Amino acid sequence: MFIKLLxxxxxxxxxxxxxxxxxxxxxxxxxxxATFINPVFPPPLGGAAAFYTYLKDARKKDPSLLLFDxxxxxxxxxxxxxxxLDKVIKFYKLMGYNAMVPGWREFxxxxxxxxxxxxxxxxxxxxxxxxxxxxxxxxxxVLPYKIFNVNGIKVGVFGLTTEKMPLFANDWWVxxxxxxxxxxxxxxxxxxxxxxxxxxxxxxxxxGSSREKVIADSVAGIDFIFGGFMGYGLREPxxxxxxxxxxxxxxxYFASAMELNIFYDRNNRCITGYRAKQITLMEEDYExxxxxxxxxx
Length: 297
Hints:
By secondary structure, the protein is an alpha/beta fold. It has a single domain (24-49, 74-295), classed as Metallo-dependent phosphatases (Purple Acid Phosphatase, chain A, domain 2), CATH 3.60.21. Helix content is 27%, strand content 26%. It has helices spanning 2-11, 47-61, 85-95, 110-119, 165-168, 182-195, 209-218, 290-295; strands at 14-22, 32-33, 44-45, 66-69, 99-100, 129-131, 145-150, 153-161, 177-179, 200-206, 224-226, 238-239, 246-248, 256-265, 270-280. A six-stranded mixed sheet has the order 7-8-10-11-13-12, with helices on one face. Strands 5-4-1-14-15 form a five-stranded mixed sheet, with no helix packed on it. The chain is globular. The termini are far apart.
């Protein structure tokens, strides 16, 4: 009896925080073929309509589910042609996202385009996006971080956009913007989140896979990095041996979403484990919602 009681006291109550994220959708909201499975006879992927079906079921099981995106949700061409920001806004709202980090594609219509997305309901997190004339001032309406309360567990989420944005962007896209260095910014924000009592710290990254590994190795206190921008997807989570930060990222063009379950010991205030899995949006698994399908045909 004593041993059972001791084990119970040591382990405490384990809660689950469920998070889903997407990255580098690049405007692929409609149906398409899964050529990575079969290039000749690709099975159909359901896009936004299948994702809606998955989310509807997932939220029935866990209404506190959090949903994020790590940037480059916007499609179109670098030249600025055929960029439909309203479609991005519609998708973001219909799926019920909590926040996203702006990727370089969110700047395809310049800073005014980013403001348009923000003014129409998209919550942007980017701790290193400031102004050239005042690098201490965050870009208009963009938050450095946000803390989400999930059944009493504080999940601190912050965003980083690539510090090398001026190398990728046309000058007029970012004529007034300044991008702070990623690692010093991450250290500062992690400290701020810890002071505010964050139990779990997550980075929404649009910095690229190589930079994410450097950030994971250099900044203590980040529990998970949701990756985006340049680089390949990860088949399995990558855990840094030194900081134990876990990196997750998917392949681009909205073939799948990532579901992460974080197991948290409320009594001892620590993460006891996690389970991550790719949700491949096959139509045979997630029947596309007809109304959503019509919206993104």
